[in-house]
Amino acid sequence: MKKKKPLVLIPGLLCDATLWQAQIEEFSAMAEIMVADHTRHDDIATIAAAILSEAPDHFALAGLSMGGYIAMEIMRQAPGRVTQLALLDTTAAPDPPERQKMRRMLMAQSEKGKFKGVTRKLLADLIHKDRLQDEKLTGTIMQMAERMGRDVFLRQQKAILGRPDSRPDMPHYHCRTLILCGEDDALTPVEAHREMHALIPHSSLRIVAHCGHLSTLEDPGTVNIAMRSWLLGDG
Cβ distance 82 to 51 under 8 Å? Predict the structure, then answer.
């Protein structure tokens, strides 16, 4: 029997393994899957080091949004351990000043006891506008945030604010890389993914039509097709 390929999946901000549930179900027969814990520390480098300490010696790596930021840090710390890389709905660039300001405002509100998780108002940034009435999808997103809670939110936002610019590193990536995003991603738009694609030598770009930021939940079928091809080395 063929040995399963180790695959490490890293969720996004205020997300847990549910973000990757469709991929876990799809690939569990061909991959030994580990969903990384990105909740314990408030520094990207420390989060990445902790994941590396628990990961197999060599593994395929996929991260969405904040998970992508962590995946890029893993590529800084241990590029030789990553056999292939998938960056979903993320960006290599640091936050612009207005995004930093928004993060700090949300952190300040949460520290005053006003943590609201992902509210219906914030959902418009996370999923395509045509899915805002999908109660199963929106409920899944809000429940993940509730499970994560205020303290995790504060640690993760601090880590995101302190992340470095990953663009200078990307020309040195030597593993096959999938770059994927929703066509209508409001938080990390298509242009950010085209930039990464131009910088990473062995990369392919997949844009998911009619999809927002949380592509693995919004259109798992299309994401699974792209990831299967990536895992098998076909694209």
Answer: no
